[in-house]
Amino acid sequence: MSDTKVKVAVRVRPLNRRELELNTKCVVEMEGNQTVLHPPPSNTKQGERKPPKVFAFDYCFWSMDESNTTKYAGQEVVFKCLGEGILEKAFQGYNACIFAYGQTGSGKSFSMMGSAEQRGLIPRLCCALFQRISLEQNESQTFKVEVSYMEIYNEKVRDLLDPKGSRQSLKVREHKVLGPYVDGLSQLAVTSFEDIESLMSEGNKSRTVAATNMNEESSRSHAVFNIIITQTLYDLQSGNSGEKVSKVSLVDLAGSERVSKTGAAGERLKEGSNINKSLTTLGLVISSLADQAAGKGKNKFVPYRDSVLTWLLKDNLGGNSQTSMIATISPAADNYEETLSTLRYADRAKRIVNHAVVNEDPNAKVIRELREEVEKLREQLSQAEAMKAPELKEKLEESEKLIKELTVTWEEKLRKTEEIAQERQRQLESMGISLETSGIKVGDDKCYLVNLNADPALNELLVYYLKDHTRVGADTSQDIQLFGIGIQPEHCEIDIASDGEVTLTPKENARSCVNGTLVCSTTQLWHGDRILWGNNHFFRINLPKRKRRDWLKDFEKETGPPEHDVDAASEASSEPDYNYEFAQMEVIMKTLNSNGKTLTLDSFILGNFYKHVLSVLLKLRHIQLLIP
Fold it and tell me: Which PANTHER family match (predicted)?
């Protein structure tokens, strides 16, 4: 048995566009393995200087300033420090885990998943896994790899690899032999990094579709990607063989921001409470385990079962696992409280001691114990009273099901993986979604819609190609299928004329907005236009043969003349980035104007018209507008 503390790393991201526009002060410093958090100027009274908060961790990654080459920690550095060690432990037969914690927008998903150009921990680890397998596999040693991918949202578990999984929640059970597990979760066989990349891409597409259809925010969900590595070792002389099985859990936790900061209300508040419940429970589990490690109350109760998240992470926290945590923080002064909370959370986590063991021949042992359990249950069932029979029967069925799953051959697993992949592709294609594996790789002459999402990991992930006549709606007869609040069975039509003109025609009572403006009749579309269907389906249209609108004139027509010189502004700035925030906020602003509400922009003036407008749009995301 190997007793090891949880390794903790802290990573600070660069100032984002909004923070740069607002000249936000950086309050984070890093030197060696120390992170220093300075109180923001607004929290310091004249003549009174609060001392900075100093924390020490295993690793401190300064990703704030790429120009500082000696100090800067990019994706490769993060992987070398955290990912390589975890992979080594997995090959030795240990269970391992990396989980990312921090407020929304602090860089969790970027650290875990990354982008096409800058891959994160998960794709780098998976790539390195198969590179090592190709080097080490021979006649005396073989490897089998399986993966599962799930999302925990509102205390419910969804399978992201099963085509039907995003529509139903799965039960979490605990078996006395296997421990906590998700009943019915797909565990798919893979033989290459490309297989994993494809599964993750399609899993993320399913996650995006489900989140949009149900009006959910992915930043409020936890994503768990599991890799199960089975090593079979053969003794060629004796003919004997043995197995080592390791499970690597890669967890991207939900955003940890405060309710007061998000401005949440109603369903969002309830949903946030469930997310906070799981993160709060995780905090309580971490605190209890830290106290145990320090010798304070060794018999202290650890509330693993108080949330689905902690129940499933039971082995990774204080159990049989080599675990690392990456805490991501913002450098900005206006995120001081969230950053301090994250650093305190991480400071507690580093005290946890895990008790990892090499998992040698676990399957044979588990199957043997399950069969013994089945025999006992059958005997008890034959002698049971009528009241106890249903409970015993359920336990018997559960154990028999587990034995069946554990005794499936590798060939059967590969066949099942292929069947599920084909079903998932059929489902995505039936909804009009292109099956590009990673990022947007489409021809320059193609007309298509691309989804806009608040979560960078899910933004611009779904591509919908347009035909000469494309029908949009919830009905199965539609070319592009959308579901959710405000989507009609037949919602809208998009037509491409022979001369290249593109028009959008909404059906009656089918909410459709173009660049934030509600449209009720046929409307011309231009390259880069933003479309909102229903309550939360945001898209940007790509029309390579149609130039962009004159965005300054278009915005001025809707909101009145600018307060600064437009020519100077247009010279000083390029056209705006038509992202989710822009699309969402132009809907809000134009709705306010159409209702006779004047949005005062004076307090947000930042030197030129474009910066002025953009900062208002971005600032509004953090303000709860109360319109009487």
Answer: STAR-RELATED LIPID TRANSFER PROTEIN 9
The token duo for 312 is 């499933």
CA distances, 95 to each of 60, 269, 357, 368, 419 (Å): 24, 36, 8, 21, 29
Helix (H, G, I), strand (E, B) or coil at 368: helix
End position of a domain, from candidates 482, 514, 549: 549
Q: Does 274 lie in the same domain as 260?
A: yes
What is residue 599's predicted lDDT score, i.e. its pLDDT?
Answer: 47
Indicate if 481 and 516 belong to the same structural domain. yes
What are the φ/ψ torsions at residue 538 (nearest 5 degrees)? -100, 135
- Domain shared by 384 and 476, yes or no: no
**Residue 12 located in a structural domain:** yes
Low-confidence residues in the chain, pLDDT < 50: 259-260, 262-266, 268-273, 437-442, 552, 556, 559, 561-575, 598-628
- The pTM for the full model equals 0.75
Is there a single domain that holds both residue 117 and residue 196?
A: yes
For 345-390, how does the pLDDT look when each residue is reduced to its tens digit (9 = 90+)?
A: 999 999 999 988 888 766 666 767 777 777 777 777 777 665 567 7
Domain of residue 78: give its range.
2-356
What does the alpha-carbon distance between residue 449 and residue 435 come to, in Å, rounded to a whole number?
14
In-domain check, residue 510: yes
Give pLDDT, residue 621. 43
The annotated binding site for ATP is made up of 102-109
DSSP 133-177: HHHH-BTTEEEEEEEEEEEEETTEEEESSSTTGGGSPBPEEEETT
Q: What is the mean pLDDT of the chain?
A: 80
The rounded distance, in Å, linking the Cα atoms of 132 and 127 is 9
Annotated binding site: 102-109
Contact indicator for 268, 276 with CB cutoff of 8 Å: no
Same domain, 179 and 306: yes
Query: For the CA atoms of the chain, what is the radius of gyration?
Result: 27
| Residue range 183-222, pLDDT digits in tens | 889 999 999 999 999 888 888 887 777 776 665 555 678 9
Q: What is the pLDDT of residue 434?
A: 66
Nearest to 532 by CA among 468, 585, 595: 585
* CATH assignment of the domain containing 66: 3.40.850.10
The one-letter code for the residue type at 170 is L
